[in-house]
Every structure is written in C-alpha cells, then in structure tokens.
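Request: How about a record?
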Amino acid sequence: MTTTNTETEVARRLSLSPEKLEGKERHNWCPQARDQLFGPESERHDPLPAHSKVIARYRSVLGEAHDESVRALTSNEATVHLLDDVEAAAITATRTAGRPMRVVLMGRTMAGKSTLLAALTGGSAERIGVGAQRTSRDVFAAPALDLQDVEIVDTPGVGAKDGAEDVALAMAEVPGADLVLWVASNDSFQEETAQALRAVAFQGKPVVVALNCRASLFDELVREDFLADPTFVFDQYQGHFNTIRAHLSAAGVEPVAEVMLHAEAARQARADEQFGAALKSASRVQNLLDTLENESRVHRTARRVLRATDEVRVQAQALSEVLADSEQQIRELVHVGRGLRKDQKLRAGRLVDACLQRMEDDAVRIVGQRHGWHQTITDFGPQVSEKWEEEQNSLITELGQALTSHLDELSRAIADANSAAQQECSAAAPAAVKIEGLRDFRGLWKRRAAGTVVGVGGALGATLLGAKVGLLAGGAFGGPIGAGIGVIVGGLGTALVTPLRKKVQSLFKGKGRILEENRELLRVEIGNALEELQRQTRIQIDTIIRQVRADLSATAEQRAVAEMAVLDVADLLADQQKVISVATAELDHDAAVCLLHVDGRSRLAATVERVTRLAGVCIAVEVTDHSFAESWLFPPSSPEVMTFGRPPSPEVPGARATSYVLGLTEQVPKALSVRPDRTSVTIETLVPEPILAAWSATLSDHLGTQITIAHPSLLGVPRNE
C-alpha cells in the first residue's frame, strides 16, 4: 500500500518510520496506535440481545406489509389471481438463537458431499452414493468432530434429472447458514450446477469452495501412488477454481477460501489405523479444517449477527420481489386494458356511424316507396280505408324490421370487434410498462445491475392477460345495445301513421267525388304524412343512436373506474415495498452498528449515520467527519467487507466515492472523473467486472448519484476534473 500523508503524520506521532508502514495493510499496520490517537474504547457489551429486538421489530413490519398486500389483492377481482405468490412469501419464524456455527454442504449430486460429511463428522457411509444419482434426498446435520461448536449440514445435490425438489430443499437451508461449503468435483461444470451456485451467492452467503478430487483409492497400488505423491492428483485440477470463481463473481462475490482435497481419503483416514495419518495428510482436509476453525474463532459472533439478519432479510427480499412483480403485472394489465379500451372505442365508433347511415338510408327507402301508393287506388269506396290500413301495417312492420335488424347487427358487430381487439391485445402482451425506481429494498435493482433475473412470475402471459383484461371490461362491451328497440319503432309508427288513417277516412266516405280529384287530394295528404313520418323517423333513429353511444360511453367509463381501482391496488403494493425498503435500511444500519460492537469498536459504532448493504458483497458506511480518519486508518475486522466515507458533498455527491473505493480495493484509484450527475473511478486492481458492477451499484445507491468503477481498458483513463 502506498504511504499517505496521513499515515506519515501518524508515524511521526508514534515514532515510527515511514519505511515500517510500507507494504502494511491498514488492518494490521499498527493496532496499538489506535488508542494513542483516538483514546481507549469503552467497555464491551453483548450487542446480540438488542439486535434480536431489532430483528423482531423488523419481522413485525414485514408481517404487516405482507398482510396489507394480501388484503389489497383480495379486494379486487382483477388482482385475486396474484394472491398465491404473495401468500407464499409470508414471513415465518427463524431458528438462529442458540445454534452452533452452521456450515451447509452444497454442490452437484455425486460431488462427494456425503463423503466429506462422513470425513468431518465421523459419520457412517450410509449416505454415500455408489454411482447412482440422488443418494442424499434429505437434510442431515451432525457436529464436526475436530471443530468446537460447529455443525455440518448435508443437503440434496443439485443438477440431477427431475431434481427440482432436491434443489428447493438444499436452497431452503441457505438462509440459516453461517457458511456455505460448496463441494465441487473434478468433473466438468454443468449449467444446472452453475445456476445453483450463483443462486447461493446472490443470497449473500459466504462461500468456501472445496474441490474434491475423486481419484480411486480402492486399488492398493493406486492408493500407494496417491500417498507417495498426492500433488499428482491435485495439480491437474487447479483450473476448476477459475470456473467456480467466475460463477461466484457473476453475483458480485468472491469465495472466502478455496481448498482442494480428497474427501474419500479423509473419510478412510478416520478408520484406517495403519495409514490414517498418511491419508489425512495426503487428503489435505486439514486445510479445510483450518479454514473453518479460523472462521469460527475469528468471526463466529459476527457471522451470527449476519445470519440472524439475513434469515429474515432474505424473506423480505422474496416478499419485496413478489410485490414488485405483482405491481408490474397489475400496471401492465391496466396499460393493456387502456389500449384495448381505446381500440374498442374507435372500432365501435366506426360501426355505430355505419349503422346510423344504413338505418337512415333504409328509412328513406321504405317510407319513400309509399309516395306512389295513391296510384294503386282504383276504387275510392269504403275499401280504401282498409287498403290504407294494410299498407300502414306493412310500412310499420318493414320499418321496424329494418331498424331492429341493423341494431341487432350492430350489437353483434361490436361484440365481435371487441373480441378481436382483445385477442390482438393479448397476443401482443409484452411488458410495456416499467416501474420507475423499483420500490423494493436495497439489493433488488442492484442484482439486476449485476446481471441476475429478478421476479417470480414476470409479465402475464397472453392468454392470462386477456382473461384479466376481460375482468376489467365488466362483461360484454356491447351488451346494452338494442334493448327496447322494437318498442321504440312500434311506437313511432303508431304515433305518426294513425293520424293519416283518420284523414283518409274523412276523404273517402262515399263515391260522389271525382276519382282524379280524390287521387290528387290523397297524394297531397299521403305525401305530407310520409314526409313527416320520415322526419320523425330520422329523429327517432338519432335518439336511438345517441342511446347506443351513451351505453357504450357508460360501459367505457365503468371500465375506466375499474382500472383506477386496480391501480389503487398497485399503488398500495408500491407503498408496502417502500415500507420494506425503509425497514431494511434501518436493519442494515443496526447490523453494521452491531458488527462494530462485536469488533470492540463502540466509538466508531456511535458515529454511523447511514448504511447501504449489498449482502455478501460489501457494506458502505457513512460516518461523521470526526471519525472518518479512525475508520479509514483502522478499519474494523468484519466477515463482510465494510468500507467507510464521509457525508456526501451536496453539490457533487460522487466526489466522496474515492474513499469508499479505497476501502474496497486498498489501492489509490488511477483516475477520478466527477460531474454533478455521475462519477467515474478508474482502478488498476484486477477485479472481475461483475464485482465492479456490484460495487458501483451499491455506491450509486449509497451516494445518490451514478457511480461507475471500472478498469482503464473499459473507460479509458478519464482526466481529473
């Protein structure tokens, strides 16, 4: 590490030469100096009881957020289908208190987990497979023989055919683990195994990698060769660590330790009196035991704090993801529903306009055909009234049938058009709505930044979406059309034609009048009556069409109201995500403070102002200006990397990013580019890109501005600004 001016000043005060500081890590460069510079720490106290109370409060907040979300989804028919996933994310009790350090064995089926379990616990070989997959189908725990207060847990293997249930059982043990001991074999790394490993890493659990080199020891000559030169077995598989490291780094984490061993040799060592010591030495299992013993000795209490925190935090993660996914589905539902409603309005409007035109044309045609009726009259005796009565009935029937037929056809056409529109919208149902600023707790969107897939259900499928949009429609869009049409038309005829009947009867009561005179009188009277009938018919058609349009508008308005009610549910889910986010930020703050107390850093713990944690990756801690020098010169010992900084500058929030980067890399950044809206920090430390992305996301969240940490090859070397 490069000696800084601050360190030089410290060296002067402590009578240390700068040369003695060169190459020293901040964690151990001069521990006795802390008390001389900053004073002695207060008397230690057990922080776990207070932390347990914080977790209990947190669990209560989560439970209420879950219950509120369930009530919201239940309140609306269109959102009830999301209830199962949310109910499945209910907050349950955890089992942390009083348990020993818990090391969970995971890995591909037949990798040697059960063999290693037997080697570490002295158990029988009953769980060890003999070539068939899925030998271990349950969870089994036993105390480690060579480690004090350490429990080893065997889980079903991953990657077996039809082994989804096995994976679920194994993953269920991860939240309650202090360490995950990932057992890999010297076989090729399968994609199913990679997915499970990444899933473990994304839960933020520390991972110790044990590469089991499964050379056969059943042949006596082979065993002798192995005991004579075990490096021959191990050296050829060093490259496997690179593959495992790459999958872990995809989740933004690095393994706590990497150990190569021969699990079968370690197991046989316990029962072989003659070659036991040689087998144990050759197996390299002692390297694993040393790693686990060191973790237990140095970090036992701190890991208990993190375990207790993450057992409930991972439940909050699951609940928050489900709520975010449900919220997005609801908003997509409404988005599609609104588009459908607009489309249906346009289609229905065109159909109504066309129907109106056809009804008016038919009215003109049907009524107009009667203008020449008087020409058919040859006998102006009493029979003329009967003939007019027949013609009148024919007119009314024909007019009513025509108008009713058009309205019935309109109703069917609108129903068909709505159905077609709904199918088209459902078939084109990609996620069209994004939730700006996803409202879940820290980690969800950072996981996305690191390249993982978040959410349990994703967007609604086309068929399901169509069904749920139908719920918003509240039934057939064109249902009200046509109601009472026959009555309206019948009344029209009765009201307008009956007066003409009386006029005809008054004109032709006898035969004394001249035929042509009577015919002309009849033409005039019929013409006037028919013109009035046509005018009134048009008025009535307009009235009917206005009613149709009103029915359609009322239905659309009902759907708009239904959409707003559904959006209210989405808003409530968003509110509950915010509640979880705030509560999780408070939990992370308390966890960081608790870790500092565990490390005996009570003075530093009292100055913690703000915390942003990405589980398993890092904890960004903002402290006061007064205590920043202490936090940086004498960083605490924590199983999860803690990096410190001062309160951000209001003008340029990212200007303080370098102190956090220093805490992550132990190297001075090569370059810094600062702008009001973004900051780029260039480092030369060889760090995998996904880890840089995870750091960048964490600091972006922490400082409230875009932070990018990258290698010079990616960004170029930005100039200092």
